[in-house]
Design goal:
The chain has 260 residues and is an alpha/beta fold. Helix content is 37%, strand content 25%. It is globular, with a radius of gyration of 18 Å. The relative contact order is 0.19. It binds adenosine-5'-diphosphate (ADP) and magnesium ion.
């Protein structure tokens, strides 16, 4: 049986203001889930909580991954366990090349699995990097550039997807909202993710707009509204949101949410 990320009754506050109000969600290896919802509904709050950002306070609930409560782990321990989180605004790492950053990340993961591990041999790493960059149609010179230093929005996203490709996490959470990608960059990212999808990878794509889902076809679509998941359906739900917007969600669920 594959790994699963299981979010149970998650309540999260930011600056003492409750944002997530009982989120339940299970993403299994091999499944593609989309989390949609209007701006301010709490989608990014969920992503930041999963990675362990200190501004997001967990008031109740659990996040189980590989039999462990993820919320008890430090951010780096979470990623070593096999959870990948891509950020809307990735950090710059001056003086560290994309290749070195990736090798360090791979070695950290290997060491988490086996404390005796000596790190990935350089020829093996070069081969892996070359193979994944070809798969993602990336220029080989990209690996030598300093991570995120002067990268365009699209290049930052490409670096993230390359990271996803070489780290081979079991579950990836991609928050694409508001990232301001132009349509070409968006397609590159989406096609990259599409190339990596398979039985070994589960993905939660967080997005306000339906457009990325033209390239990444989700098995399940969830709609978040006022800190809860109020609708779950198939990929047709994303199309319905694109056509009708989010107002009908508001109309349908406002009353029940106000009771809480
Ligand atoms: P979404 O990603 O769905 O647009 P967010 O999770 O970014 O929604 O925001 C949900 C709510 O939480 C908003 O009301 C937002 O103002 C608030 N919020 C999120 N992050 C912070 C923060 N770091 N500081 C203060 N308020 C925040
Ligand atoms: Mg967001």
């Amino acid at each position: 049986m594959g790994s699963a990320l299981e979010i149970r009754n998650l309540h999260v506050s930011v600056e003492d203001k409750p944002i997530l109000k009982g989120v339940n969600l299970v993403v299994k290896q091999g499944e593609i889930h989309a989390l949609m919802g209007p701006n301010g509904s709490g989608k990014s709050t969920l992503a930041y909580t999963l990675i362990g950002h200190p501004s997001y306070r967990v008031d109740a609930g659990q996040v189980i991954f590989k039999g462990v409560d993820l919320l008890e782990l430090k951010p780096d321990e979470r990623s070593r366990l096999g959870l990948f989180l891509a950020f809307q605004y990735p950090v710059t790492v001056p003086g560290v090349s994309v290749a070195n950053f990736l090798r360090t990340a791979i070695n950290a993961r290997r060491k988490a699995v086996d404390p005796e591990d000596k790190g990935i041999p350089i020829p093996e790493f070069r081969k892996l990097l070359k193979e994944k960059m070809a798969l993602l149609q990336m220029d080989p010179s990209f690996a030598g550039r300093y991570l995120n230093d002067g990268f365009s929005g699209g290049e930052k996203k490409r670096a993230e997807i390359l990271q996803l490709a070489v780290l081979k996490p079991e579950i990836a959470v991609l928050d694409e909202t508001d990232s301001g990608l132009d349509i070409d960059a968006l397609r590159t990212v989406a096609e990259g993710v599409q190339a990596l999808i398979g039985p070994e990878l589960g993905v939660l794509v967080i997005t306000h707009y339906q457009r990325i889902l033209n390239y990444i076809k989700p098995d399940v679509v969830h709609v978040m509204f006022q800190g809860r998941i109020v609708e779950t359906g198939g990929s047709d739900l994303a199309l319905e949101l694109e056509e009708r917007g989010y107002d009908w969600i508001r109309v349908r669920h406002q009353a029940e949410l106000e009771e809480v």
